[in-house]
Specification:
The chain folds into three domains: 151 residues, no CATH class; 81 residues, no CATH class; 89 residues, Immunoglobulin-like, CATH 2.60.40.1180. Helices cover 36% and strands 19% of the residues. The strands form five sheets. The chain has a five-stranded antiparallel beta sheet. It has a three-stranded antiparallel beta sheet with strand order 10-13-12, with no helix packed on it. Strands 1-2 form a two-stranded antiparallel sheet. A hairpin with a 2-residue loop joins strand 8 and strand 9.
């Protein structure tokens, strides 16, 4: 009853390849799985009478919105379903290139048949004609921001939509949120580069939605301080999302580039991390001292073209003969398999 779940699972197959750059996994696991999903999504698409020339799903929903009532089903494709299908076709154009699929053009054209993700004065809606009209535990309408990264705060249009979406989310409040809602929100705030809000969400999760042994209990364990749900079901996804929220604050890697400390509060003046994995199978370590990034070390497990958003105004590579390009504030370095480079702040 939620056909785009297949597209969400495809995202995880993609990540496994993208973070490892394992060509065997791409050929033997990712590509065959994507092939089956392409057949499935193409088979269930129907004409969209409200938008001639477009297609939609026979039934569309947004997880847990309106619960099990008939109102949970929309004639218009929801932003959740639309984002997942759009993202699937976007990822497919990338994985097809290495395997030289002759049908690549056909699947690229599928994107042209989809409606655009719906927005209005509230930011992202649930679906066309349906705003987020109450506090809700599942941020499914915001998957285009996180985890899919279809829209970014890097450009003015994306930033405007993200800002509207988050301010509206805040207006609706957290009374119907569960524990995982807060850790997921931390990831979204981190992508929006709102470091203090991301930190706030993580603190609420840890203090109100975990037991003494750190297990996530879903309901507010302090009598409903932040949520009307006060029950104690144990689930895992909140803890995983909490860890990922921290990762998103320390390093972000999507759409072909890596950014160091993209959403760290000013109060975190002295911090570091070691060997966090990014897309492209790069292992990154970085240190921040007295509020300033002092050094970055990157190892390429598989080799490839590194795109690193410039972490310093002035910098130097300790690998003295290593060539690099600096374009539009992004450092581009071609790295060999197993190679490590170190970049330091200041002048040599």
């Amino acid at each position: 009853m939620s056909p785009t779940t297949a597209a969400w699972l495809a995202q995880h197959f993609y990540w496994q390849w993208k973070y490892s750059m394992d060509k065997k996994f791409l050929r033997q696991r990712v590509h065959p799985y994507f092939e089956e999903i392409k057949k499935f999504l193409s088979g269930i698409g129907i004409k969209n009478k409200q938008e001639p020339g477009k297609i939609r799903l026979p039934l569309s929903s947004s997880p847990e919105f309106h619960d099990n009532s008939i109102n949970a089903w929309f004639n218009n494709i929801t932003n959740y379903d639309l984002a997942l299908v759009t993202n699937f076709h976007k990822l497919n154009t990338e994985i097809e290139a290495p395997v030289k699929d002759r049908q690549l053009k056909k699947w690229i054209n599928q994107l042209e048949l989809l409606s655009g993700i719906d927005t209005n004065e509230t930011g992202f809606t649930i679906a066309r004609g349906q705003n987020l009209d109450e506090s809700h535990r599942h941020h499914a309408h915001l998957v285009a921001i996180y985890p899919l990264g279809l829209i970014s705060s890097e450009d003015s249009t994306g930033k405007t939509i993200i800002d509207k979406s988050l301010r509206w989310l805040e207006k609706m409040g957290t009374r119907n949120w569960c524990g995982y809602s807060f850790s997921w929100a931390a990831c979204i705030y981190a992508r929006a580069k709102e470091a203090d809000n991301a930190t706030k969400m993580l603190k609420i999760f840890a203090s109100n939605f975990c037991s003494a042994n750190s297990f996530h209990l879903n309901g507010d364990q302090k009598g409903g301080e932040y949520s009307s749900f006060t029950y104690r079901p144990f689930t895992l996804e909140g803890n995983f999302a909490y860890a990922q929220g921290i990762h998103e604050m320390l390093i972000q890697s999507y759409n072909g580039s890596i950014e160091i400390f993209p959403a760290v509060p000013d109060a975190w003046e002295d911090i570091s991390f070691t060997n966090l994995r990014t897309e492209g199978a790069f292992l990154v370590s970085a240190k921040k001292e007295n509020g300033v990034i002092s050094e970055v070390s990157i190892t390429a497990e598989q080799g490839g073209d590194l795109h690193l958003k410039r972490p310093f105004k002035t910098f130097y590579l300790t690998n003295k003969n290593k060539k690099y390009k600096l374009e539009e504030n992004t450092l581009e370095i071609i790295m060999a398999k197993g190679e490590t480079i170190k970049i330091k702040n200041g002048f040599e």
